[in-house]
Design goal:
Layout (H helix, E strand, L loop, with lengths): L4 E8 L6 H9 L17 E6 L3 E7 L9 H13 L5 E6 L7 H10 L6 E5 L7 H11 L7 E4 L8 H10 L18 H16 L3 H4 L2 E9 L5 E10 L2 H8 L4 H18 L2 E10 L7 H6 L8
Parallel strand pairs: 1-3, 1-4, 4-5, 5-6, 8-9
Antiparallel strand pairs: 2-3, 7-8
Helix pairs in contact: 6-9
Length: 300
Amino acid sequence: MKQFKSGFVTIIGRPNVGKSTLMNHLIGQKIAITSSKAQTTRNRIQTVYTGENGQIVFLDTPGINRARNKLGEYMLCTAENTLKEVDVVLWLVEPTTFIGAGERYIIEKLSKIHTPVILVINKIDTVLEEEVFKAINTYKDVYDFKEIVPVSALRDNNTDELIKTIFDYLEEGPQYYDPDTITDQPERAIVAEMIREKALRLLDKEIPHGIAVVIERMKDRDSGGIVDIDATIICERDSHKGIIIGKQGSMLKKIGTQARKDMENLLDTRVNLKLWVKVKKDWRDSDFLLKNYGYKDTDY
């Protein structure tokens, strides 16, 4: 009988290296939100891959970066605590020979753990093959990686090889989740993140860092076939509120339209989405509001 392996794997890296994109491709469905802006992932998102060889529970964490406010401290704490809880660490980097302060900060954190670390060089579709080899040679000298695997998360290139490599470092173990399970995230949390993703993509650089999304109501209609969702986008300044709403509500409508399409794919039903915008000044430095918006847990 074939050995069934299982374990927990975290994906770490600096902001914007493609962690959420990689995880979405590995499990075959969009759960983690993606954008080109920093602070896209704020909470630890748990997703599940089940295959013939076994089951991998992925923990997608916030990018490891020095904190600038209480939200940043929470995100950093979430990412660093995860390193101690897993069976394998995937460190995602870009195909470059430049190892900056951010990478050295991660190396310092990795040097304090005994977990196997696999270096994943992402975005190989953006450079020549010789650049990938140069990056491999540079990184292999700074840390004792168990394996180095080049991939393109966006193009889904070599991700099968990455799955095989992960299983090489997992022990025989139980099936933690049913084969059909792809995440432990409640639907409300995923729906809120879908709205935040569209805001991240559509708004100016500074505003998205200062927004949160709260689902006020999510209910199936008695007549069936449609879900009513009421959500509030929280921002930090009155000027931001005007930009999020847009001229005659145009930006808010655009955010809602794009988010609704993703929600309908996720929930496999029609969605009636209503959005509001509220100002809560400096919420990212308020312990009470951070907890209220889902960014605090008992470990912090």
